[in-house]
Amino acid sequence: EQDPKTRTAPPSELAQSSAPTSSHPAASPSDDPSRVTDELNGITLPVLDGWQKAENVADDYTFITTPGTYDCPEDDWGLCRRGTVSTRTVTSTDETDPEVLAKKDVKEAADTSYDKTPGGGEPFGGMTGHEVVAARQVAVAGRTGYLVRWKVTTKTGPGGYVQSVVFPSSSGSGALVAVRCTLDVSDASPPLTDLDRIVKGIRPVGGSGGGGVGSSLGPSR
What global pTM score does this model have? Predict the structure, then answer.
């Protein structure tokens, strides 16, 4: 049974912010341990070494996490994870520019992961600042999207990286998809380069993806 205190990237409360709302993805069981499928958005994501398919998470969006948990820096808050990967279908907005949406979504992702959770908790004592370390056009699953990555600092704990990539769905629906990644700044975390590898490894269901404008992701910071 799931520990109710386990901290993961929580479901977004986008309706209460300036970011676009999003609908729940539908995970599909897969025998391939190296990939996980989001049927709703028509994509598969790579499960890299040092990561695993999500288990015992508190929301319907998280598909991949780092193994295990640790005590959150703030006393009595619960358990945290070093890294998460989640997907959302962008809805309830007329905005169609992936760059605009990614810049809004990364703020929402940072707020809910490292500042205040939707339930009002502060597992890291609140977020004290951020630096934009990447903002560029990328190719995702054969479509042109936009990536934004923040490095955030927190009152307690080492802080972390928060990334949002927004791109058109491969399902043919015309919808836009947001893929969020969070990663603690810690020697116990997977390497930061994994965030680029995850984006590069996103594929349309039944296809190989790749190519298109911005297929070179460039160096990580």
Answer: 0.81
